[in-house]
Amino acid sequence: MRLSRAAVLAQAKAAALDGVRRLNCCANLLFLSFPAQISICRDLPNIEVITFSVNGISDLEPLHQCQNLSELYLRKNNIRSLDELFYLKTLPRLRVLWLAENPCCGPDPHRYRMTVLRNLPSLQKLDNQAVTEEELSQALVDGVEITAPPARRSVENSWSESTASSAAGSTTEPESELLSCSLEETTKTQEELDMKPVPRDKYSSFSSQETDCSCKKRNNVLNAILLLMKELDAEGLEIIQQMVARRLQAFQKKELQEE
């Protein structure tokens, strides 16, 4: 799913996209269908602060037109390559970047930080840590300069192929193994949240046609929601509660109509 114009205007309380200065979509449920799409950022010329932490973002290309952007928060996303920094090098006012807990950070914290600072020397704070003059000098030696955008296929095509491949592979797995794996993963997540585990009969009630792909996808989405709940404050949880209540009412109404 993409972050829509209506959602941006509602969150920023603005009348038009060029009036949006700050956008906070941390742990946003609009991004539960990975990979998250932020193409709307191309239409935010005056945006100054963006918070997209804890989502499924993998492509930073839409941000390169946000010339007024000064603060960007991307913690816990799916950014796999530091080559994505290519799109941030054109942002003259960027001073704060939080990129930690992404796959692109790799196993070497020093090399990661040096590479970011070599390509974004105007940063004053990286991953909530102040940037020093000594680090900027060292980055010229230890950092890797990024001169080209990341080589990749279309994000949507790549995701579609990956989904199709996963679905094809899942048909070879025994039904019992799929159920066991899904139940185990979900139960573990719920234990971390101190929640009552879902009874096994809730899983075994799925039809055989659902079991292979739909059941697995359903449980992946459930796990994502449960993990994202950790990042929400009281206001966010109240919104989720209201959405769940409306969804349940819709399902109950549909069941009554079918009866």
UniProtKB/TrEMBL annotation:
Location of the region described as Disordered in the Swiss-Prot/TrEMBL record: 152-209
GO cellular component: ciliary basal body; photoreceptor cell cilium
Taxonomic source organism: Nicator chloris
Ranges annotated as biased composition (Low complexity): 156-184
Protein name according to UniProt: Cilia- and flagella-associated protein 410
Domain U2A'/phosphoprotein 32 family A C-terminal per the UniProt entry, residue ranges: 109-127
Quaternary structure note: Found in a complex with CFAP410, NEK1 and SPATA7. Interacts with NEK1.
Role: Plays a role in cilia formation and/or maintenance. Plays a role in the regulation of cell morphology and cytoskeletal organization. Involved in DNA damage repair.
